[in-house]
Amino acid sequence: MSLFKEIQLPSGKSYKQPLGLFIDNEFIKASGNESIDSYNPATGEVIASVMAADAGADVDKAVAAARKAFPGWRDTPATEKRDLLLKLAALVEENVEILAEVESLDTGKPVAQNAKYDILELVEVLKYYAGWVDKSTGQSFVPNAKKLTYTLHQPLGVVGCIIPFNYPLAMMSWKWTAIATGNTAVFKSAEQTPLSILYFANLVKEAGFPPGVFNAISGTGALVGNALASHLGVDKIAFTGSTAVGQVVQKTAAVNLKPLTLECGGKSPIVIFDDAEFDQAVKWTAWGIFNNMGQICSGTSRCLVQDSIYDKFLTALQQHVRETYVVGSPDDSRVLVGPQVSKKQQERVQSYIKSAVDEGCRVVLGGEGLPDVIASSSTHKNGYYVKPTILGDVTPQHRVFNEEVFGPVITVTKFSTYAEALKLANQTEYGLGSSVFTQNIVRAHKFAAEIEAGMCWINSSNDVDINSPFGGVKMSGYGRELGEYGLANFTNVKSVQLNLGNKL
Ligand code: NAD
Fold it and tell me: Domain Aldehyde dehydrogenase spans what residues (predicted)?
């Protein structure tokens, strides 16, 4: 099997796709013969087969490379680290068009409306953490005249970074905090989306990062992800993915008490009170779930609407989504809704829609089956498309109210009082995002304080800002990425106590 493949993109451009493992700044062959097929979700055709790392020899090799690079990288002057991150950000920016196309081809994200924003987010996150590299400090205390104490924030060593399929490069970028804080890292891409991180690896080398600082391998979660989580040479796991796998990773990582950040699933509420700015509430509600084809961990998939505006809101939401969320080919610049990432994901979402219908939920828009424009297309009829779906009159008794669908499906539920809205909003095992629409400032802040979630958007939804921490509570995980808080998850705090003359 060759290490590279020439791939033709829908725009007509072609590029050289790496297929190997990126270890020590080189693409190398995996030691076994296993490979992973990457599918184009818009057509169902195989794009390329990448080499799957062997869970033993190859994971050991990647971890050893990161281990060897660690002391040198840790001790690299902060300003040099900063400049490398900025150089990498500039290279990504220069390559934004091609990276967006590769990301789109592999995930099904519309190039113009989705994938490009992910790449620009990657640029911003690299720049943001470049800014922190030479500013992160500890604290000092003078408890009495004879003592000085201070803290050192020291990198942990080798970090294993496990990436989900929904934002391959953007989720990877959040974990670059590991490298910015002086750790070295082994990244494992999701099985469904291995291509873009390998293309990005070229840029890491071109930027001048020393070999072994950033390593990227492909492989299944059950083998390669598990091997990273259980590896005694890995000092931390930064995991983003489902709650079920997060639980497995937590157990596996106990082998050497690795610290973890777990960014897991969600079932986030969006609560619309009758004093909300109506049009904005409609638009943000749609954006909060139909962006990225609903494959958003913090997607506000449970909409709770006050009874006095319930019917009017449902009608307006249905009309807005029908007119604005255009379904079609990811390379069409008018399209906002591409396919789901995989056949499995398509079937999973369809089965949730079916169960909701079987349980008596009202289909206000969408429903089972393929969107008409796809069913009649010779190119896309085998793509993994799902209709943007609005389900009305949903209650906590319905399965779809409680379980994460992770697709373009929103449930709408009626409430009458603040107390009822809060109870419904908190009626979930998850606690990732939340959103509230009201012009009443006291009610808005009361809700932000009382909702059981890691994040609360007031009068918007999922307008994630990289300066602010991202993460969840309850079954959505723990630890934070982004913002200054993100730094804390990648260093150990050492307390140093200097005796200035206290004699025994
Ligand atoms: P997933 O849990 O199936 O896979 C995530 C990653 O874990 C993949 O790289 C996979 O290969 C790996 N993995 C699987 N089994 C493993 C094991 N036993 N040991 C170690 N690694 C293993 O999730 P997914 O389907 O790729 O992504 C969707 C899920 O991710 C959703 O539940 C979504 O809510 C969640 N997510 C959360 C956030 C967040 O920030 N909280 C962000 C994005 C996605």
Answer: 28-496
